[in-house]
Design the sequence.
């Protein structure tokens, strides 16, 4: 009986530490979830004469994917983005983050372009406003332009299946404003 | 699984890419002091055990540039901190504000100390007192040694 209490405390400690092992210490909860996406005004990667603003993202749910040619983890998620672009209804908007125009274009030429539109953010201004801290990052915006989900690091098939796809289905079903 | 692991590793490498630091110049020494204090109080999101002032990560450089820009634009410390918290959350603060979310963080150590004190007090109280020396024993000792039990 007198050993029961220390063993119970030990058990609780083991359980807490075990849960701690499974948490990702790099994960930083974003304060932007359920907040409106920031305003921006950026050239497209293809054509510096074409300017895109937040208004271009409204009206339907979109995936916004921050990528760069220098980002090796982006190559890993790229095939998944290609597959989503081909098979699914959702539009993917790319943001070429802190990159050169030539490198960004070359990347899409070599590996394929899953994006409906690619915005060029060489100074990382929009990235800063979106609280980007680890490229690639993927945001889900609803039709009002409110950020509903954020994935830091490569979008994985599990995250797509379990989080993003069900959320998009829900957002499509939401009534138009 | 291996792909996911590889992706994570590559991502970590991308995060760790170092950047050249540019020293800033301020018009007034007071601004330089504010910059230094803010950079030490704000946490780098990439190298989470480093402050913005310590970190060589690319993102830390960007955030330092931003802090510099806002100081030279005449914005207050409060405005700069609010700007960063709005984007990165209270995580960027090394001294997070006291809120229900951070109660455990702020008061947890005091709570643990109180629990430890309570346990110690209970154990100390339960332990029986040392019994007073038996007076019969004293008399026997006195009889054997020939000294009165009162004398030490």
Sequence:
């Amino acid at each position: 009986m007198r050993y029961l209490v220390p063993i119970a405390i030990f058990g609780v400690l083991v359980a807490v530490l075990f849960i701690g092992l499974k948490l990702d210490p790099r994960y930083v909860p974003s304060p932007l979830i359920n907040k409106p996406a920031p305003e921006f005004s950026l050239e497209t990667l293809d054509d510096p004469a074409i300017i895109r603003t937040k208004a271009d993202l409204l009206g339907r749910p979109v995936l916004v994917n921050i990528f760069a040619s220098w980002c090796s983890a982006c190559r890993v998620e790229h095939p998944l983005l290609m597959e989503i672009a081909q098979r699914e209804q959702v539009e993917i908007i790319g943001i070429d983050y802190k990159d050169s125009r030539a490198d960004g274009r070359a990347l899409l030429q070599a590996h394929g372009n899953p994006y409906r539109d690619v915005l060029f953010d060489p100074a990382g201004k929009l990235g800063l406003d979106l609280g980007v801290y680890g490229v690639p990052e993927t945001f889900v915006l609803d039709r009002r332009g409110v950020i509903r989900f954020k994935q830091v690091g490569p979008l994985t098939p599990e995250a797509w299946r379990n989080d993003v796809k069900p959320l998009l289905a829900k957002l499509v079903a939401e009534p138009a404003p | 699984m291996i792909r996911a692991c590889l992706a994570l590793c590559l991502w970590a490498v991308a995060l760790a890419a170092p950047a050249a630091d540019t020293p800033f110049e301020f018009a007034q020494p007071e601004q330089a002091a504010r910059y230094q204090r803010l950079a030490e109080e704000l946490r780098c999101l990439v190298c989470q055990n480093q402050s913005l002032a310590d970190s060589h990560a690319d993102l830390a450089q960007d955030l330092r540039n931003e802090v510099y820009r806002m100081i030279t634009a005449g914005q207050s410390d409060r405005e700069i901190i609010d700007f960063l918290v709005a984007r990165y959350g209270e995580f960027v603060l090394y001294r997070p504000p006291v809120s229900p979310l951070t109660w455990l963080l702020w008061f947890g150590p005091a709570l643990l100390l109180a629990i430890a004190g309570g346990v110690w007090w209970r154990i100390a109280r339960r332990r029986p007192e040392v019994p007073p020396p038996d007076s019969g024993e004293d008399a026997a000792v006195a009889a054997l040694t020939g000294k009165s039990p009162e004398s030490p």
User: Anything to note?
Assistant: Helices of chain B lie at 2-16, 29-41, 58-72, 77-88, 103-126, 135-145. The interface with chain A takes residues 3-4, 6-8, 10-11, 13-15, 17, 45-46, 48, 58-59, 62-63, 66, 85-91 of chain B (CB under 8 Å).
